[in-house]
Design goal:
The protein is α+β, with helices and mostly antiparallel strands and 470 residues long. It has three domains: 194 residues, no CATH class; 96 residues, no CATH class; 110 residues, Immunoglobulins (Immunoglobulin-like, Sandwich). The chain contains 15 helices and 15 strands. The model has no long low-confidence stretch (mean pLDDT 90). The structure holds iron/sulfur cluster (2 copies). One iron/sulfur cluster (SF4) binds next to helix 12 and helix 13.
């Protein structure tokens, strides 16, 4: 049968060491540490309120982030946060290229962790290749079984940690230990265990190549001053094997050792130029720097650089001038634009959080009927009042109506009262029906202003509505 597609070769990344490898280890420890530890942080919000610092309480319909409590009505804060994260990512990408992909993306972090497990049990690149090609011996079986068991445990820890963000972590852990946990939680744990196992254990670089949409459109954030991984061809070529002690005259510094290729988690050769698969992880930079040190040549044959610098250097070489290293241009229209949006959205979010009130008032004027004429000629309008008490104690609120000379105000169920008082339990929404009676002989539609005053703190919330007459 004619093969139309080449079989994808499995990639066995070789371990390297250096500055960028250390940065990647550090990013992994910090990010995984935050992910696993965050649900265990406590934050005292007073009695009858969860004390988990970061919690998405789906049942109680609240989001908690330390001192910030997000109600369903404040979902715009979450939207703002997502916009902030997206613009932050665009900003970082326009400056530093695919730094997110190389160091912080969960797919990269977990894959790195899985490869580390593989490396510790099965050995480095060549040993792993050999083991895969070898027949099924006892040694191969225990090494593979142990690797997959640890991968599954990491997957379980990943799914397990995720559900802690949606439940009180100590209570849920107790449930898990006693095999008593909600069915939906169990489904999430199983789904995340298996997806982590599959994506970091098997799919790996294929997720970045074929499944990740961000990998595809982030080149739109690149310009000629964005930092990319570049091979200094003008210095490296013509490449070729080199014997220690022989001259470098008339040849390039690349000794064609392929150290930069075998460490690459994406399986590419960066000497062929920038490719969409490159996640800017810098491991080829480390590998090549180690080779250059051994050869007693300057480091940086592969390095982070910009396209503009590459072209400038090529020009200098063509003019037979000494090539210079050039600088990073941080301030550019694109980066200024992203930074401005970041500040704007960040400022709006900060303003929304700082100006957030403890009480919210919503008034709906009943439409059917719009008004009722009572037997004494008085006109009555009905209103639905919704009060959000975002505090952690029960509150009484006084309701006042400005802009209308009222004859009577009645709170349904409480009778005719001069100033109706609404009691709303802590951390909840109170709904009330109020009837407002006024003179018949005035304009047909009067704007009115409802004012709600917290009897404990004196703080007020208000809402505009109207009073309708025939
Ligand atoms: S590691 Fe450096 S010297 Fe070796 S092949 Fe890659 S670019 Fe050439
Ligand atoms: S080419 Fe270099 S920077 Fe790009 S993915 Fe491979 S190792 Fe990482």
């Amino acid at each position: 049968m004619v093969q139309l597609f080449a079989k994808d070769e499995k990639i066995y990344p070789q371990r390297t060491h250096g500055l960028f490898r250390t940065l990647k280890w550090t990013a992994m420890v910090v990010l995984l540490g935050i992910y696993y530890a965050a649900p265990w942080l406590r934050y005292d919000r007073g009695p009858h309120v969860p004390d988990q610092a970061i919690l998405i309480d789906l049942v109680g319909q609240r989001g908690y982030f330390f001192g910030i409590e997000i109600w369903p009505q404040e979902v715009y804060l979450l939207v703002g946060l997502l916009i902030l994260a997206a613009i932050g990512l665009f900003f970082a990408t326009s400056l530093l290229g695919r730094v997110w992909c190389g160091y912080a993306c969960p797919q990269t972090v977990w894959t790195d962790l899985f490869v580390l497990v593989e490396h510790l049990i099965q050995g480095d690149r060549n040993a792993r290749r050999k083991l895969d090609a070898a027949p099924w011996t006892l040694e191969k079986i225990w090494k593979k079984l142990l690797t997959h068991a640890i991968w599954l445990l990491i997957g379980l820890a990943t799914g397990g940690a995720w559900v802690f963000y949606f439940n009180d972590a100590p209570t849920l852990l107790d449930g898990i230990l006693h095999l008593d946990l909600p069915g939906l939680t169990l489904v999430w744990i199983i789904a995340l265990t298996l997806s982590t196992y599959f994506m970091a254990g098997y799919a790996r670089e294929n997720i970045c190549k074929f499944a990740c949409p961000y990998a595809r459109f982030q080149s739109a954030m690149f310009d000629r001053d964005t930092l990319i991984i570049s091979y200094a061809g003008e210095r490296g070529e013509p490449r070729g094997k080199h014997k220690i002690g022989t001259s470098w005259e008339g040849r390039g510094h690349c000794i064609d050792c392929t150290a930069c290729v075998v460490v690459c988690p994406m399986g590419i050769d960066i000497r062929n130029g920038l490719q969409y698969e490159c996640i800017s992880c810098g491991l080829c930079v480390d590998a090549c720097n180690n080779v250059m040190e051994k050869m007693k040549l300057p480091r940086g044959l592969i390095h982070y650089d910009t396209e503009n610098n590459q072209h400038r250097r090529a020009d200098e070489i063509a003019r037979q001038a000494v090539p210079t290293r050039g600088r990073m241009k941080w301030i550019r229209p694109r980066t200024v634009f992203y930074a401005a949006i970041l500040f704007l959205v960040g400022g709006l979010m900060l303003g929304a959080i700082v100006l957030r009130t403890e009480t919210e008032l919503n008034i709906i004027h009943n439409r059917s009927p719009l008004y009722v004429r009572l037997s004494d000629g008085t006109i009555r309008n009905n209103y639905q009042i919704k009060v959000l008490n975002k505090t952690h104690s029960d509150r009484d609120y006084a309701v006042k109506i400005d802009g209308l000379t009222t004859r009577r105000v009645e709170l349904l169920g409480a009778g005719d009262v001069a100033v109706p008082s609404l009691r709303v339990p802590a951390n909840s929404v109170g709904e009330f029906r109020v009837q407002v009676m006024a003179e018949p002989n005035a304009s047909a539609r009067v704007p009115v202003h409802f004012i709600l005053t917290d009897r404990t703190t004196g703080k007020a919330a208000s809402h505009d509505s109207y009073f309708i007459r025939p």
